[in-house]
Amino acid sequence: MSKKIRITSPAVPEPEAGLWSNCLRVDDCLYLSGFTSRAPDGVTILGDSAYEQAKVIFGKMKALCEAAGGSIDDIVTMTIYVTDISENKEIWKARREFFSGDFPACALIEVKGLADPRIKLEIQSQARLKASA
Hints:
The protein is an alpha+beta fold. The protein has helices spanning 50-67, 88-98, and strands spanning 4-6, 23-26, 29-35, 75-82, 105-110, 121-128. The chain is built from two helices and six strands.
């Protein structure tokens, strides 16, 4: 039977207990929750543009992958929820700054809104680590 291991990083604040986990490792797979550019204080939104917010989110994803013993290039799929689909090029620009080689499979979905009107996007992803720890 596979064991779930919660992965944490100082770069990604922990949610309130009992609500969700930021990242779970099951065997060599990582399941990352949807992330926004919300700061650790829970109020401040880091970045005004989709590009700036995407960079914050990719930084959180990178930190969690590394905390699990992998890298951001281990991410195999992601779903991006965006409030304005026309900002896709800004998101792709940020993505190119974090990923190399084969890019993850991806869905881009426009939504009416997210948890805070200042939030432009949320990204959920899954990774397959090169080797189990």
